[in-house]
Amino acid sequence: MAVNTEAYQTVKQELDAKQVTLVAVSKTKPVEDIVELYDSGHRDFGENYVQELVDKQAALPKDIRWHFIGHLQSNKVKYIAPFVQLIHGVDSLKLLKEINKEAGKNNRIIDVLLQVHIAQEETKFGLNEEELNLIIQEFENLKMTNVRVCGLMGMASFSDDLEKVRSEFRYLKMLFNKSADKFTIHPSPFTILSMGMSGDYKVAVEEGSTMVRIGSLLFGARNSSK
Ligand SMILES: *Cc1c(COP(=O)(O)O)cnc(C)c1O
């Protein structure tokens, strides 16, 4: 069996006790693996690549909640807009506007998270604090009606130094609290803090994560560096 159901049950229990949502990251893994977790009751799955997500969505039960956790190009929003549950990696106003437009075409309101750059690595996508504040301000000014900004997402440094990782999560949580104060709508939809992966989710939860994205711990290591 490809799925580590024992690890799944352990992690799931641990997270349920703290009311943290588990997104099972199934990128590069076959639909059979997803079905296996689906059959044990899991519904939240995360994917990084648009084409792969579209193919899997077509092949699998329609009550799966699909999270797009990769870097999304504006010209590809249209492919996932009809069904996506939550887009985690929004890091530009251009992308936010495009999601709003495509959601409108589909008569939907799409939930998104803004991605903040918290790691030391240069290669990771995401906003800095100033850019984050600007996007939130613009979002409020433009009155986009088909997109809801529901929180923040971040990836910590790829490092064994868990204290470093902890301080990055703590910083993201601080930005999350500050940002939440800026939303004038009541009740505020700004409630999700997506942080934590296989190697660092425990630290993330300790620092206030409400949603973790876990792949290799559940599905085994991936073949490529994807
Ligand atoms: C791949 C990926 C994950 C899951 O990583 P694991 O280390 O396998 O748990 C989480 N978040 C994002 C954005 C990813 O790309």
Q: Give the rounded overall mean pLDDT.
A: 95
The bound ligands are: pyridoxal-5'-phosphate
Stretches with pLDDT under 50, minimum 5 residues: none
What fraction of the residues are assigned to beta strands by DSSP?
15-25%
User: How many distinct folded domains?
Assistant: 1
CATH fourth-tier homologous superfamily: Alanine racemase
Task: Briefly note the CATH topology name.
Answer: TIM Barrel
Largest β sheet strand count, sense and barrel closure: 8 strands, parallel
The side-by-side strand order for the widest beta sheet comes to 7-6-5-4-3-2-1-8
**What is the total tally of β strands?**
8
- The top-level CATH class is Alpha Beta
End-to-end C-alpha gap: 22 Å
* CATH architecture classification: Alpha-Beta Barrel
**Percent helix range:** 40-55%
SSE succession: HEHEHEHEHEHEHEHEH
Overall shape: it is: globular
Integer-rounded radius of gyration? 17 Å
Structural class, by secondary structure, is alpha/beta
Protein name: Pyridoxal phosphate homeostasis protein
Cofactor: pyridoxal 5'-phosphate
Pfam families: Ala_racemase_N
Keywords: Pyridoxal phosphate
Describe the structure.
- Belongs to the pyridoxal phosphate-binding protein YggS/PROSC family.
- Pyridoxal 5'-phosphate (PLP)-binding protein, which is involved in PLP homeostasis.
- Keywords: Pyridoxal phosphate.
- The chain is an alpha/beta fold and 226 residues long.
- It has a single domain, classed as TIM Barrel, CATH 3.20.20.
- Helix content is 41%, strand content 19%.
- It has nine helices and eight strands.
- The chain has an eight-stranded parallel β-sheet.
- Helix 7 links the parallel strand 6 and strand 7.
- The longest helix has 19 residues.
- The site of pyridoxal-5'-phosphate has 13 residues, from strand 8 and helix 9.
